[in-house]
Amino acid sequence: MRRALKLAERGRRKTSPNPMVGAVVVRNGKIVGEGWHSHAGGPHAEVIAVGKAGKLARGAALFINLEPCCHYGRTPPCAPKIVDSGIRTVFASIVDPDPRVNGRGLRFLRRHQTIVNVGLLAGDARKLNEAYITWITKKRPFVAVKVSESLDGRLAASDGSSRGLGSSAEIKFVHALRAKHDAVLVGVGTILKDNPRLTVRCAKGPNPHRIIFDSRLRAPISSETLKRNGDEKIIVVCLRDAPEARIRALESRGIEVWRLGGRDGRVNIRTFLSEAARRSIQSILVEGGSDVITSFLKERCVDRVYVAVAPKILGGDGRFSWPKEIGVRNIRDAIQLEQVGARKLGCDVLLEGYLFADRGGIKHSQRRR
Q1: Whether residue 183 is found in the same domain as residue 298
Q2: Partners of 177 in the β-ladder
Q3: CB–CB of 250/236 below 8 Å?
Q4: Looking at the structure, do residues 79 and 194 belong to the same domain, yes or no?
Q5: How far, in Å, CA of 286 to CA of 146, rounded?
Q6: What's the confidence (pLDDT) of residue 320?
Q7: Residues assigned a catalytic role
Q8: In terms of residue numbers, what domain contains 117?
C-alpha cells in the first residue's frame, strides 16, 4: 500500500478534479502490475495495474489507496474491470466520498465474490487526498495559510519591510508548498507593498494559479503578480461594483476577473470559496497579508496552518502582527491546532498543524470518507 501511495503522488496537480490514485497488483508476494492516475480523463490506476498484470491478475491481490469507481465519467467504471481481471482480493485504504461512488464500488466487488478489506494506511491516504476530500465533502477548496513571522509575531518591520525575514531554507519551503497547491492567494496590500511574483522558482513543480483579492482593483496593471508566466491562471477577485474600465483592462490581458458579493467593502470569503470550488480549484495557499488571513480565520475556513518563526525581534506598534480580531473571546473558544509538528528550516522553526476550528467541528484525524 505504501507503494500505491507513492505512485499516487506522481499525479499531484495533474489529476484535478479527480483524486490521486495508485494501484499495485501482488501475486505470491511479488508485484506483477502497478499504475497511477496520471491526468484527468486518462485511464485510472487500477485499470493500468491489472492491465500490466495481465493473466497474472487472476487470483492476485490489488492494493489501492481509494475505492474503485463504479460509475461512468470520462472513463468507464473500474470495479467491473477488476472483477473481469480475476483479482481475488482488494485492499482499499479509504472509501471515495464522491456521492457517485461512496461505497458502491466496494459493494459491487463483494457482490461478485471479491474479498474486500478497507482501512490499510487510511490516515496516509486521507492526507494524500485531503484537498479532494474537502472539495467533495465541504464544497469548497482545501485552504492552507502560510505565515512568516518574527519571534514576537510580526510579519514586517515598522516601515513595512518584510523581505529577508525568512531564511533561504524557508523560502525554498514556500516555493515547494506553492507547487503542491492549485492556487496561491494574496491581498492587494501585499501586491502594493511587496510586488511578488508568486511563482515556483526555488523548487521543482508547476506554478500555481494566482489569486488576488482586490475589492476596488487598486493593483497596478504592471504588477509582477499580474504578468503571465505560463499556463497558470491569474484571477483577480473584486466586488460587483468595481470600476468597469479596470475590469476591461485586466480582461484584455487574459486575466480572469471574478465579481462577487461582499460586505463592509470586502469580498465574502464563503462566496469566493464556493466559486473557486465550482471552477474545480481544490486547494488554495493563502500567503497574506494579515487582513486576508484574518478574514479566512474569522470565517473558520482554514484547514491547515504553516508558521515559520524567524529568530528575530522586530517590535513596533503591532500594525504588522497577525491575525487581527477573529471573534475569540476566551481560551475555551480558541482556534485549536491538531497534529502539530515542528521542524527547523535553516535558522527558522516551522510549526504546522490542522485546524480544529470550533468545538462542534470535526478533527482532521477523525474525518471520514
Answers
A1: yes
A2: none
A3: yes
A4: no
A5: 6
A6: 87
A7: 46
A8: 2-128
Alpha-carbon gap, residue 45 to 50, rounded angstroms = 9
Q: How far apart are CA 77 and CA 85, in angstroms?
A: 14
* pLDDT tens-place string over residues 275-321: 999 999 999 999 988 999 999 999 999 999 999 999 999 998 878 88
Residues in CB range of 11: below 8 A, 6 or more apart: 20, 21, 36, 37, 38, 39
Same domain, 14 and 156: no
169 in the same domain as 262: yes
Spatial neighbors of 192 by CB under 8 A, at least 6 apart, are 218, 219
Supply angle C-alpha 170, 171, 175, rounded to 5: 115
**For the chain, how many structural domains are there in total?**
2
The CATH number of whichever domain residue 9 belongs to comes to 3.40.140.10
For the chain, the 3-state helix, strand and coil shares in percent, each to the nearest 5, are 30, 25, 45
Query: From CA 86, how far away is CA 18, in angstroms rounded?
Result: 26
Q: How far is CA 356 from the centre of its chain?
A: 17
Mean pLDDT of 29-47: 95
Q: What pLDDT score does 214 carry?
A: 97
Confidence of residue 356 (pLDDT cuts 50, 70, 90): low
The reply to whether 138 and 39 lie within a common domain is no
pTM, rounded to two decimals: 0.91
Query: What is the structure's pLDDT at 239?
Result: 97
* Interval 145-198: pLDDT, tens: 999 999 999 999 988 888 889 999 999 999 999 999 999 999 999 999 999 999
Q: Which of 3, 15, 54 is nearest to 206 (CA)?
A: 15
pLDDT value, residue 369: 34
What are the tens digits of pLDDT across the range 249-279?
999 999 999 999 998 889 999 999 999 999 9
**84 shares its domain with 212:** no
Which of 108, 128, 148 is at the close of a domain? 128
| Cβ 206 vs Cβ 182: under 8 Å | no
Q: Residue 366: pLDDT above 80?
A: no
CA dist., res. 162 & res. 174, Å (int) = 15
| Residue 155 contacts residue 189 (beta carbons within 8 Å) | no
Asked if residues 213 and 221 have their Cβ atoms less than 8 Å apart, the reply is no
202 and 311 within one domain: yes
